[in-house]
Amino acid sequence: MAAQVGRAGLHHLLSQLSALATGRGGAGLLSALWLITAARILSPNDFGNLAILLAVGSMGGVLGDLGLQTALAHVTATGGVIDRRALSAVIRRRLVMSTGAFLMIATLYDLASTDSSLLVPLVYAGSIYATAIYSSETAALTAVGRAQVDGSNEFLSRLAVLVVGWWWLHHGGGLLAAVAVYSIADVLSAVVITLIVRRRLGSVKSPVDLRRFRVRRTAKLAFALTAAVVYARVDTWLLGQLQGATLAGHYAAADKVLDAVLLVPAALGALSIAQISPLARADRWRRTTHLIGLAIVAAGVPAFGVALFAPQVMGGLFGPSFRSTGPVLVVLLVSAVPGAVISACSPISAVLTGWAFTLAVAVGLAFNVGLNLILIPLFRASGAAYANLASELLLAVWVFLLMYRTTHSRTTHGRTDG
Fold it and tell me: Mind giving me the DSSP string for 42-69?
């Protein structure tokens, strides 16, 4: 009987993964094509500024979340229904916090870019507020087995960015147009997904305690996810600060290839809460190993293939001047395997281990920043890549051990799923 349940659970996991990864995979391809287009049309300096904005947008965006999206997914997966009051409470809180996110993004962009105008971050604000709405809704939908909505939205919104952005840049839109298409696509996503989720709202039998979504209750998730996002993008920002926007743009292009390799592990991470939270403790480790195994294979195989032709990939995709970034891409691709473990396990580890996961990511972030500050002045973009590899290895081992300990212990320390 247990074996039948396990096979059924694995089948459901693969079904949801297929839906989400297909959409996100297509979205990743379209996003890469868009950046290729931007790299070939924009000046090297403007493309570098765009890369810096996207990096600080990811880092600042966590201030518009602070763990609420993950907490909502966990509550929804546990209850089996999208609670109307819970979703509304999360969106209201995130919209208020998005103002802080905007201020952080504008400040970091001004510090590292060569663009002194506030118009670019002001236009990008539309994306910040819209994302607070639709990402909350897709997190809840994914938690009840509707991952295809997230996948479809990712694909269609990136398609809109590519098509509109390509036309606009070819007609002289420049950096401002490249930023505006993100806001347009995200606002449309917020409108459409809100209409979809309204048909699936309900109420759990026992009303959700909305105090669970107060920042002090989600603090452990907030700190962990903030550190995780900053950890993933701080190298691009530091390169912009220490070596200039053009080199930051070259590194960001290579990092985008790595992001494409990690699309399936990231999709597994998005599914991890829905797949593991409802399970009995005895079944959680088995499902965790399924996630890790799938993630390693899904990242390792394409990473090896791309690494064999890294200079040709960079030059062929982004233009001849990017060919010299091939060695940087090789180092980044070596980090794909530990990165796959981190991508697949981080959301569920944040939920189940609480402050232990926060400590792991905080140490990984400090280690990453410290290595970047040492290696970037010495080795430029290659230094950032080596810093990323070393910190990924450290964090992957730590997260793996956290999940093992949590799923095998009688009591879960720092757990948030009560």
Answer: S-HHHHHHHHHHHHHHHHHHGGGTTTHH
